[in-house]
């Protein structure tokens, strides 16, 4: 047995993952650490016996080729383009208009390639000396309309027509041809894409590098541009429910686009997108792309707080009558103004509204106005409503907070439990395992095989009927029906018990209010305030938990949003009685 | 939640649970602490959702197992397998053992599972990483034993025995020994069946010779297998017992004695009462001198003063010529009766009553007082309350009489127990009670002058 001879064999042992091979008498490789014998055997090349040394060279050459998978030449940005394409297709099946993919997202992407100097510019990144067909880039023109028409270009055509068609075409030149960096094939640094290694090393100031989470930021930007009826929380929920490709999106790349090595770090994702993160990325990209002001969000848009409030009131089973109050709060705070709502990335302080979070915060404020939510008044009012409803069975029932709480609590707990179970059962790993370097390849594949076979075995123990049937995408998560006591519908219930007449208008019986935040954070840490759950009433905690679960956001960010609305609503109070622990304020309607 | 491996072992060797410690480091667990440690381990970096959901998945499995929801457990297990592909190599390496433990438990109880599924699962898990091969093989074999498949178990153990493990050997040596020993135990089982057959055969029979030859073969293999394990410190009761039985059968008394002496006296071995019991029983069979037997039981007395052999020990001490043995004999009796489990042992009370009288007659009042001083605070309420007097009299009059005598001697005739019994008017026992009263009067250590 000769250890020297076995040095060429660099794969990891499938048993113990060591790379320490010896040769058995039969010429097979065995692991010196665990004595596992492989199927592979060393090709017998005896240069002494065979005078023709060419044979050796040929056999070596063949072996080398086998080590790294050969596929098409492709660039990292093409990978992202693939993902965007898939996501756009998925959005289309969700009912979003086809313009989103063919015009908006497509243009955003082109603009990105141009801004990041990957294509459509004079000096594409990487190309030293070599020039590709480049279109004029005029930096002085930041206006959207004056953007050159790029539709005829190769990379975009493939995007519009079919995302899978990225096979190199002899007629068309690559947008940014570079030569593959000389790579030692045995080195651990490698990638299936042409520029994977460089891409992962690239750190250029002022350039927003493409990542998988940023694909969602692109999607949301396009949705916002189109003023589609999908909020950011909806989008992210659809991702989590698997309606929009995200995790393992690379699985559906064309067979010939091989991924390994550094591509793993770029395309493999082990977390679901988080609201705050994508939100930030979206602003960042919009600024980077230097996008003009987005189309106006007017009162008839889905994203307008009045409409979204209506939607969320329905979702959480609150009376329709509350919509009047939410509209008033929206009006008083001025958050329904077009200028406030419309996203303008070139404005000095580019920021956009978290439409969904804000709408929900308005509902929380209205609930506080009506019921105070101090763990006391809401129950007193419930007692009154209960008595009234018992006496007047024929009339339109008064809204009973306690009953609503009981119904909601049960439904949400149930939903949460199911959600947690579904998350725990989520299968993260792709059918196409990714490996870091060629020596890992066999081990990674073996591991995959093992997991698949174990799963196969255990699936026989599971009921044949799948327990988690794939939900069809819906912007509603709950479903309320009249009659079913567990799912009682409160939409038609009235607010008479809580409001009283005052002259011409109605005012809330409750004249007290407490502010969710006394002091706003003034430092540079950028967060508005903190949320220490135990400092607040149980009802408030329940409401905050309910809504943040609905939007899959952190409770603290909803609390922040509520505080911001209150800041607008009680502007005078804030400036005058900053230090008063409780602010009294009667509101008139 | 019982550990599956323990479950298996318990089913095999019911009486020595210490063994299970070898396989599983079960102990207390603090889920909340685990969580804290988890965040510390990631160095404050946000945990990826993959890690978070697989953790949650593990908790769901554990919860399902706790509630005996095998179906649910299997569902979550189906997803948990992906931890084998975790990019965190620490977690990946720890995973096979966790999967094996949980998975085997599920397959052990799941209604749709059967022998075949279990075997496939075990075979698959054995080959994930080297470190678990032996452990899983052994537990697999125990599973097969549990289902009465001795041959399969034996084959499994043989496979495991010949497993080559390269540099990873030192940590697994004990396991190899254990595997061999279990194999030995299986061979012993066959051997002892053969022995039974042999005892039904006539010695002149032709079959007798082959059968005995067969047995001899078996015993040789077995001893080789058992030997190595017994040398390593640990508690190996069933192995030692069977090994000694075979040695004795073939007349190797010296070998047997050596094994047992080593097992009982080697300081590297954990303290184990059974070791001394085995040695004592062996020496008794051998008709060893009394002195020797006493020395063995002396150690047992120190470990388990309430053991039922203590009465035998007392008899040996009583018969001895040495005075300090006589004193020890009294100590031993008091020691036995210190234990709640022995309070109704009539023999012990009878011995004590008799021996107290004997000791006092031999003018060794000091011995009695020495024993009594440490007990006079609690024995009266522990043994001699009026409640006990009533219930003993109701349940076992003979016991009550013996106790009354002891009570009278130790506490004087004023004591409640004695008074209650002496007041009883029982035709059969009238004479006996009278005798007791007399003895008490004569021997009571309270106011001996009266």
UniProtKB/TrEMBL annotation, chain A:
GO terms for cellular component: RNA polymerase I core factor complex; RNA polymerase transcription factor SL1 complex. Residues 80-254 form the Rrn7/TAF1B N-terminal cyclin domain. Residues 271-461 form the Rrn7/TAF1B C-terminal cyclin domain. It holds the Pfam family Rrn7_cyclin_C. Coiled coil: none annotated. InterPro entries: Rrn7_cyclin_C, Rrn7_cyclin_N, TAF1B/Rrn7, TF_Rrn7_Zf. Residues 8-39 form the RRN7-type domain. GO terms for biological process: nucleolar large rRNA transcription by RNA polymerase I. GO terms for molecular function: RNA polymerase I core promoter sequence-specific DNA binding; zinc ion binding. Keywords: DNA-binding, Metal-binding, Nucleus, Transcription, Transcription regulation, Zinc, Zinc-finger. It is found in: Nucleus, Nucleolus. Component of RNA polymerase I core factor complex that acts as a GTF2B/TFIIB-like factor and plays a key role in multiple steps during transcription initiation such as pre-initiation complex (PIC) assembly and postpolymerase recruitment events in polymerase I (Pol I) transcription. Binds rDNA promoters and plays a role in Pol I recruitment as a component of the SL1/TIF-IB complex and, possibly, directly through its interaction with RRN3. Belongs to the RRN7/TAF1B family. This is TATA box-binding protein-associated factor RNA polymerase I subunit B.
Automatic annotation (TrEMBL), chain B:
GO terms for molecular function: DNA binding. The keyword Nucleus applies. Keywords: DNA-binding, Nucleus, Transcription, Transcription regulation. Its main location: nucleus. InterPro entries: RNA_pol_I_TAF1A/TAFI48_chr (IPR016629), SL1/TIF-IB_Component (IPR052669), TAF1A (IPR039495). GO terms for biological process: transcription by RNA polymerase I. Pfam families: TAF1_subA (PF14929). It is found in: Nucleus, Nucleolus. One of its GO terms (cellular component) is RNA polymerase I transcription regulator complex. The keyword Transcription regulation applies. Component of the transcription factor SL1/TIF-IB complex, which is involved in the assembly of the PIC (pre-initiation complex) during RNA polymerase I-dependent transcription. The rate of PIC formation probably is primarily dependent on the rate of association of SL1/TIF-IB with the rDNA promoter. SL1/TIF-IB is involved in stabilization of nucleolar transcription factor 1/UBTF on rDNA. Formation of SL1/TIF-IB excludes the association of TBP with TFIID subunits. Component of the transcription factor SL1/TIF-IB complex, composed of TBP and at least TAF1A, TAF1B, TAF1C and TAF1D. In the complex interacts directly with TBP, TAF1A and TAF1B. Interaction of the SL1/TIF-IB subunits with TBP excludes interaction of TBP with the transcription factor IID (TFIID) subunits. This is TATA box-binding protein-associated factor RNA polymerase I subunit A. It comes from Odobenus rosmarus divergens (Pacific walrus).
